[in-house]
Amino acid sequence: EDQVTQSPEALRLQEGESSSLNCSYTVSGLRGLFWYRQDPGKGPEFLFTLYSAGEEKEKERLKATLTKKESFLHITAPKPEDSATYLCAVLRYGGATNKLIFGTGTLLAVQP
Amino acid sequence: NAGVTQTPKFQVLKTGQSMTLQCAQDMNHNSMYWYRQDPGMGLRLIYYSASEGTTDKGEVPNGYNVSRLNKREFSLRLESAAPSQTSVYFCASSALAMGAGELFFGEGSRLTVL
Fold first, then answer.
1. Which of A73, A79, A106 lies closest to A17 in space, CA to CA?
2. Choosing a second label site near B82 at 20 to 30 A (CA), which of A30, A58, B103, B109?
3. Which of A41, A43, A103 sits opposite B105 (nearest CB)?
4. B103 and A46: CB-CB below 8 Å?
5. Distance in Å, alpha carbon of B2 to nearest chain A alpha carbon
C-alpha cells in the first residue's frame, strides 16, 4: 500500500539550531516528490519538486534532498519566520492518471 | 495577483443542510482540485477537474458533488451535510494535470457541521 510518513510530527528549535525533517515513502512508480510549507490558517505553499534520487534543491535556508526511500528537508540556521507545518507529497504513476499522496506534516516551531 | 480564491472562509451548518463552496483561479490553469484536511491525516483529494468540462472522483468523493463552471471556476457542493464532513476544504489549481507540477492552493474554507 502506498504510504508517505513524515517525522518528527513536531519539532522545536532554537533560532540558529540546524536540523532536518524526514519524509519516507513506499510507493511504486515514483514520479516526483514535493515539499510544501503551510502557515496556520493558510493553504499550503509550494517549496520544491524533486524527481530522482540524488537530486537536491535549495531555497534560502532550506535544502531538500531525495533518495530512493526518503527525502530530507534540511533547515540551516532557522529563524522564527521559518515556523510552519512542512508537508511532503509523493506523486506516483497510477495508470490512467497519477496519484498525489500527502504526508501528515511536521510542525516546526523556531524560538528566538 | 489573487491566485486561488475560495468562499466562504468559514461556515457552520446543521446536519442535513446543503451548501456550495466556491473557488476561482486567475492563473489560466487547466486543472483544479478540491481537497479536505483533517487533523492527523494528510490532504485527501475529493474531486478534480483535469480541464474545463471534465471532472473525476478522488479518494473521498462520497457526499460531495462538483461543477467545473468554466476554466476559472470549480465549485464543491454538499447536498446533505453530515458531521463527518466537518473539515477544512482547500481548492487548488495547477498548470499540469493531476499534480504533475506545482499546486497553488487557496486559503481554505473551514466548515463545521453540527
1. A79
2. B103
3. A43
4. yes
5. 13
Sheet holding A62-66, edge to edge: A3-7, A19-26, A70-75, A62-66, A56-59
**What are the grid coordinates assigned to B5, written together?**
480564491
Enumerate the residues of chain B whose CB falls inside 8 A of the CB of residue A87: 42-43
Contact between A9 and A104 under an 8 Å Cβ cutoff? The reply is yes
* Residue ranges of chain B with per-residue pLDDT less than 70: 1, 99
pLDDT at site B96? 82
**What is the helix (H) or strand (E) element at residue B88, kind and residue range?**
strand B87-94
pLDDT digits (tens, 9 = 90+) for A17-71: 999 999 999 988 888 999 999 999 999 999 999 999 999 999 999 999 999 999 9
Chain A residues with beta carbon closer than 8 angstroms to that of B56: 97
- In angstroms, rounded to a whole number, what is the distance separating the alpha carbons of residues A4 and A77? 27
Place of cell 502506498: A2
